[in-house]
Design goal:
globular; Rossmann fold; alpha/beta; single chain
């Protein structure tokens, strides 16, 4: 992950490397809401989703798939469009977000295990009962919740329109 190679001043104040998260979160009010994703080409659907997630608790932790992790998600060629550092800056600028971090693995399970948030949220296009992360969070008494999906707003749709392969 490139985060270890950059100087701390190259990152926004809300960014925390995964190794420093437990200490950083100690000062955040609970309940903690945790979500994750690529958040490439931030759009209205992302912003509404993150606002709704934050409304579920006192602090919102956003774990972004690193570039390495995002490439493994089969989002299509040339994805992510925005580099991880740029995605961190954009997500960190949102008022609803308390802390942003990056993870290299395909899923945030290891990070969830270390942090033990009170609530794990994903977009309404996910079946929470099928996610291993939901069962993991439930194992310490947390909850998993699908937030309403904002139809017609997706990074993949934006990329398809820009490439001329999707509806205008």
């Amino acid at each position: 992950m490139t985060g270890h190679l950059l100087r701390p001043e190259d990152w926004p104040a809300k960014y925390r490397a995964a190794a420093t998260l437990p200490m950083a979160l100690a000062g955040l009010p609970r309940p903690w809401v945790f979500t994750n994703g690529v958040f490439d080409l931030l759009h209205r659907g992302h912003v509404q989703y993150l606002q709704a997630a934050r409304a579920q608790g006192a602090s919102l932790i956003v774990a972004l798939n690193s570039d390495v992790s995002a490439r493994g998600l089969d989002k299509g060629p040339g994805r992510p469009v925005q580099a991880e550092q740029d995605r961190v800056w954009v997500v960190a600028a949102l008022e609803a977000v308390s802390v942003v971090t990056l993870f290299d693995e395909p899923t945030p399970q290891a990070l969830l295990q270390r942090l033990r948030p009170d609530l794990y949220v994903k977009g309404g296009d996910y079946d929470m009962s099928r996610l291993a992360e939901s069962a993991l969070v439930a194992s310490w008494g947390g909850r998993a919740l699908a937030m309403p999906f904002v139809a017609g707003h997706s990074s993949s749709g934006i990329v398809a329109r820009l490439r001329g392969t999707g509806p205008c």
